[in-house]
Specification:
With about 260 residues, this protein is α+β, with helices and mostly antiparallel strands. It has a domain of about 80 residues. The protein contains 8 helices and 5 strands. A 5-stranded antiparallel beta sheet has the order 4-3-2-1-5, covered by helices on one side. The N and C termini lie far apart (about 125 Å). The C terminus is likely disordered.
Length: about 260
């Protein structure tokens, strides 16, 4: 009689559970911690900045409100944001008043007075022109993101069209050029103003907000390509192109 044990069938060997490697406890906690930061940090920073702005405006405007019109006089707690509401209503009222004949008259008088002050004249007119350009509904400033070959051939940057070039700059150039603002990373409020022929710019399908996010993040945040498959298959920029190789016109020395 054979007392040797029978070998286990092949199917039983395959049914044996194979140990699955588990993520270490600290690595899992680290993953959860980073996920918590990614969720709470944008919300917390946004709420903090909004609350700081509201508190600053309230601290400057609320003391100027007469006591009988201040809701904090009749309420046991403060009313956050009441100063912001007063500022918005005040600016709206000023805009409504200046839209009439009397308002336009006082505005012309004020601008005439400011135009005679040597130092404040330049500051006032520059600020007025910038605000009118940015806030005007019909303005096209910062409404289009483009690619521009800068600072040399073969290198491209995201830029924003700010308007059509006029005056001496346009008159000195042989080709029609446009004003283009090239922002810096990560602070897009600083940058460079360059004058580029419109045909040397490459229009982007991404909107201004998406382009700004890409500039601020240093390329970490990249918006999706919304072009069609046919458009994505065809390159717009080739290595043989030299968009900025146009003739440069220098001012003549003759008067």
């Amino acid at each position: 009689m054979n007392d040797e044990p029978n070998p286990a069938p092949e199917s039983a060997k395959h049914n044996e559970t194979v140990p699955v490697p588990r993520i270490a406890f600290m690595a899992r906690m680290r993953t959860y911690f980073i996920a918590g930061i990614l969720i709470t940090a944008p919300i917390s920073i946004t709420v903090y900045l909004a609350w700081t702005f509201i508190a600053y405006v309230d601290s400057k405007v609320t003391p100027l409100i007469p006591v009988q019109y201040n809701p904090e006089t009749y309420m046991p707690i403060g009313v956050p944001g009441f100063g912001v509401v007063v500022v918005v209503l005040g600016l709206t009222l000023i805009g409504a008043l200046t839209a009439g004949f009397v308002g336009r008259f006082f505005q012309r008088v004020w601008e005439r007075i400011m135009g005679k002050v040597p130092v404040l004249r330049g500051i006032y007119m520059a600020l007025k022109q910038i605000l009118e350009t940015i806030l005007a509904q019909k303005s096209t400033a910062f409404r289009e993101a483009v690619l521009v070959e800068y600072p040399r051939r073969g290198m491209w940057v995201i830029a924003f069209i700010t308007g059509k070039t006029e005056g001496e700059v346009q008159n000195l150039t042989e080709r029609e050029v446009i004003n283009v603002f090239v922002p810096t990373t990560p602070n897009p409020t600083s940058g460079f103003l360059i004058f580029v022929p419109k045909e040397d710019t490459v229009k982007l399908f991404m909107n201004v907000e998406e382009a700004l996010k890409m500039v601020i993040s240093g390329g970490i945040i990249t918006p999706p390509d919304r072009r069609t498959a046919q458009q994505r298959a065809k390159a717009v920029i080739s290595s043989s192109e030299t968009p900025l190789s146009g003739k440069i016109v220098t001012p003549s020395a003759e008067t």
